[in-house]
Amino acid sequence: MARKTTFQQIRELDLKHQGVLAAYLCERMLANYDLFHESTGFGDPKVLRGGLNAVWDKLAVNKGSDWQRWQEKLEECTPNEQDFDVLGMFPAIAACTALSSLMQGVEDKDGAPLLDVAKISQGSVAHFLELGEFAHIDDADARELAIAEHPLSTYEIEVQQAMVGFLQDTAVIDKELVREVRAIARDEGISNLGL
């Protein structure tokens, strides 16, 4: 039997487990937005931090929040491709898009946007490498293979699989577990781009 992909494994998790995984992945992407903000002065990292904190609170103690208002604030902080010509813009957009998907999934109790967070995280790594380190490779197949084999790409998949495995072995999502996963993301201190 073929081994299930990371995305297939995520689909099979309970909704609350998917939410914790998506929040964990968003936590890892925030540093990319912070760096973009530091270099350009655009946006407000406090909005992303506040929105993600609201999600963690929802996951931990089922605390409600005005998700529509958070989405509006997040939209104001999301960079526009036409306004910036720096490589860091795309990871910043990915961080905003992932957080928006996370909030949508939590609000709608829908696993599809939560799965999208994992896809966005992997995609942002690939896009970062494609535009940066491998921009000089003209052959699309060779570039795709180089990206897939790059340590950042393999690390991102390994991190996602490790957290999926951890959550598969966890029957109940409670306040302590949410706190533990949040601490794991912060203690790693490294974004999905190795920053």
How would you characterize the overall build of this protein?
It is built from nine helices and no strands. The longest helix has 26 residues, at 15-40. The mean pLDDT is 95. It has 195 residues and is an all-alpha fold. Helix content is 74%, strand content 0%. The protein has a domain at 6-121 and 172-186: Up-down Bundle (YP_001051499.1 fold like), CATH 1.20.1590.10.
Could you write a compact summary of the structure shown?
The chain has 195 residues and is mainly alpha-helical. The chain is 74% helix and 0% strand.
Task: Flag low-confidence runs.
Answer: none
CATH-defined topology of the domain at 6-121 and 172-186: YP_001051499.1 fold like
Strand portion = under 5%
DSSP helical segment count = 9
Under CATH, the homologous superfamily of the domain at 6-121 and 172-186 reads YP_001051499.1 domain like
Give average pLDDT, whole number.
95
Report the helical percentage.
over 70%
What series of H and E elements makes up the topology? HHHHHHHHH
Task: Please provide the count of β strands.
Answer: 0
